[in-house]
Amino acid sequence: MINRRNFLKTGAAALPLAAAIEALHPDAVYPTETITGPAASGAAPKLIPLPTRLASIDPVTVPWQQKIRRVGQSNMTEHDPAVMNIEEWADYWHSAAADILFISVTGILAFYPSKVKFHRHGKFLNGRDFFGECVAAARKRGMRCVARMSPDLNWGDALEAHPEWAMRHPDGSVQLSEQDSRLFKTCMFSTYMDDYVPAVMREVNSLYEVDCFYTNGWPPLGSLPKCHCAICSKLPPSDTPAYWRAFNDRLLELWLRYDAIAKEKKSESFFFANLGGNVHAGPNLDRLGRIAAWFQGDNQGRTSEDPAIWGCTLQGRVCGAVMNSKFVTNLTAAYSTGSVRWRNASKNPAEAKMWMNETLASGLALYYHFIGSETGLGEDRRWQDVGRDYFQWAVKHDAHLRPRRSLANLGVMMGQGTQLLYPGPAVARTRDYMRETTHGIYETLLGGRFAFDFVHEDRLEPERISKYRALLLPNIAMLSSRQCEQIRAYVRSGGSIMASFETSLYDENLRQRADFGLADLFGISKAGDAVGTNGNAYYGRIERSHAVLEGFRNTNWLPGAQNRVPVKPVQDPVLTVVPGFVQYPPELAYPPVPHTDEPAVVLRETASSRLAYFPGDIERSFWLTGHGDLLRLLHNTIRWITRDERVVEVEGDGFVEMFAWETSPGYAIHLLNYTNPNAHHCWLNSTYPLGTQLVRMKLPSGVKVKAVELLRAESCVPFRIEDDILRFAIPRVEDYEVAAITVR
Ligand SMILES: [Zn+2]
Q: Model confidence over 388-437: pLDDT tens digits?
């Protein structure tokens, strides 16, 4: 018997394109018999119509930075004034159609004849105005300029005059750069930031025509500072909610002050700084997102902590949650990122290109970055063609690559407080706990080809979250009473929720509650402290049939998770906990307590809302194990709580990440092909192309399609529309494809 997945594997991919389109009749392609393939559901998802299209924007009202599409940076070294060929540098970036270039002022080493005290001239500067020459060369070619500063380190003479500028260890000793002990780390609470940085900014503003100011190296990425100087000693301990508030207060105070200094010369100038760290960014991104004119995703490549290929889109989704369509870039390092680094050698082109693919797919502007310009423009110049070719391709398709609105109907709460401050349950303390949780839910959603956005926990206003059919709360341990109430209101208005483990067990100050803050919503009550695993992890015994168990056959139980919070019995449970037991020796590997009334999932339905709560850390357990049962259970549950409603459906083989955007010309469906042995580790070395992908989406009434164009293949494909449902096939996906739909 044909089923949907088998049809796609054996049928559509082998058919000529026109025949594949013809076969897209719902009855023919989506029969209703049970599907037994991994994580596949029986019935076709229900397509919900896309929202009414946005009104067009008057370009005159758009700030200049939001028109930037390509950013270039040859990060300047102290030696560059002696070796860099400025004309060659400017020609390269101009040929790549860069709109704006980062040029180093710095603060560690002056690239111009600075008179600011302690702004040490680079030893190869020789009185030359290297910065000014670079600005002139860029301007001559019509490119804008960012004045790039680095306030995070300075030298011994500054320390001698200003011992209060330094970050200190608990014993009072100065915190030095790990790689060059002549440099000390500056404290962001000290007058270094109040006096020295503004002096450099004002000097640059007085001498040059720059478009905006940027600080590298501050604020810190992905973690909070740990300083024991005289000022910081009076602050709450680092890594506490109280410290985080003090850190954010100081950060915003400085950001606004620097922004005002940038505007002293011209009002359209602004200040911005490096950000990144994706869900565990240091600054509170809700607060910062309200004031930042430019979100600089300093997230240049995969790291050993974030080894998955989707590191750039993860950052992009975080930016999407807080920037309200303001300007966002994410850097692609053309150099070798990772735990072993060669910052002056090119990385695998396939990896660099995928990072740029992800940048565009997640709705950000391109940014390409290399370090040092020995012998004119680098000892290793292989990176240059990669970036220029990519930028030149993107120029041709700018209109389709610039998103206006995400079409996603699922929201994933990012829980920034939890990401930064929650240490994991007492039974599994690890700083990677939430990182692993995030990757677990992320991979789950990619595997199910769901269209999803991230949602910041401080942005739960109805006007923001009502677009989502469901919110997912993957162990969002810290939620304030207000946030809990906002989630209740969302459910009262018809929204659905899937939550797990310690969600809402702590308030915003990391104080543990006696019971879940959302206990009433889910109909759950805590029955004990979190239980970990010593041997076999717990199982979920199947008590009755339910949609979340679709596809499970020939088993009485399923894997549970590594850790769980015991909850009190509920009526008519679907899965009950079989507590963990010995796994070695095998003689003892059987359940002494084979049956309990403790629920392993709690499901609820009220009006159009559906609620699912897993007492286990199921997303993280999936990330740690890859167990297909956990994946199926999560997919089934997401389908159940959303009533299997989709805004766009993309069917086909392969592990892909999908984005769906409304654009000015129409819509854009982005597919990133992660089907690759290096998807979870190291870098891509080559691509493994995918066959036919079938796309369906329901257009708003009255919207007509003019063309469907594949931007990478650079060809149009046939399409058909029936009952407002647009159907077309993408015959092949190399590393990336964008189906650009033009409407009228
Ligand atoms: Zn300090």
A: 999 999 999 999 999 999 999 999 999 999 999 999 999 998 889 999 99
Q: How far is CA 306 from CA 329, 334, 736, in A?
A: 19, 18, 21
Amino acid identity of residue 130, one-letter, is F
**What is the spatial distance between Cα 688 and Cα 676, in angstroms, rounded to a whole number?**
6
Q: What percent of the chain has pLDDT over 70?
A: 94
How many A from CA of 164 to the centre of ligand 1?
A: 8
250-261 pLDDT, tens per residue? 999 999 999 999
Give the model's confidence band at 42: pLDDT under 50 very low, under 70 low, under 90 confident, else very high.
low
Q: Please tell me the predicted confidence (pLDDT) of residue 12.
A: 41
Distance 740 CA to ligand 1 centre (A): 50
Let me know: does 739 contact 695? Beta carbons within 8 Å.
Answer: yes
Indicate whether 581 pLDDT > 80.
yes
Question: 186 C-alpha vs ligand 1 centroid, how far in Å?
Answer: 8
Alpha carbon of 155 to ligand 1 centroid (Å): 17
Q: Tell me the CA distances in angstroms from 217 to 150, 151, 343, one per residue in order.
A: 6, 7, 16
Q: How far is the CA of 423 from the centre of ligand 1 (A)?
A: 24
Residue 509 CA to ligand 1 centre (angstroms): 23
Report the separation in Å between the CA atom of 571 and the middle of ligand 1, taken as the mean of its atom positions. 54
Compute, in angstroms, the gap from residue 166 CA to the centroid of ligand 1: 7
Ligand 1 centroid to Cα of residue 284, in Å, is 19
What Rg value do the Cα atoms of the chain yield, rounded?
Answer: 27
Residue 15: what residue type?
A: L
What is each CA distance from 560 to 189, 392, 471, 487, 575, in whole angstroms?
46, 49, 22, 26, 10
| CA pair distance 428, 435, nearest whole angstrom | 13
